[in-house]
Amino acid sequence: MNKPFELMTFKIEDTSFGLDINDIQEINCHASLCRVPVDYEAVAGVINLRGEVLTVLALGKMLGIQSHLPKDKTLGYVVLKSTNGRVAIAVDKLEDVETIPAKDLQPLPANFKLSNQHVLKGLIQKSDELLLVLDSMKVTELGMISEFV
Asked: pTM value?
């Protein structure tokens, strides 16, 4: 029997996402985003986190979901653990940690189309919404690629 997922949930625009809490280094709501001139639109900028400069990914743009919040209204950053370096994801709204049975994770339907959807493990149908579950390793790899574009 598979052990349940513990997912940190958050929103980008009206889309709900989940990340395994074991893949998260920290949640930060106080860092200031510094925009940088890069030719990769999924990079929102960088933050200075206790002396370490981290690339901040605009996950919504990576997936083709446009946030309508003003650029200076990002409410939080989810910092991912990685052996290759750390990146942060800019999120519109932090939600909660949810425990979800592993059997509830479903593959993406064949007609489900998002840009860069390979960063998704699957989805969970909740009573009132879909929760898209991210593969943090693939998100981090995409972030590492963006540093060299």
From this structure: 0.85
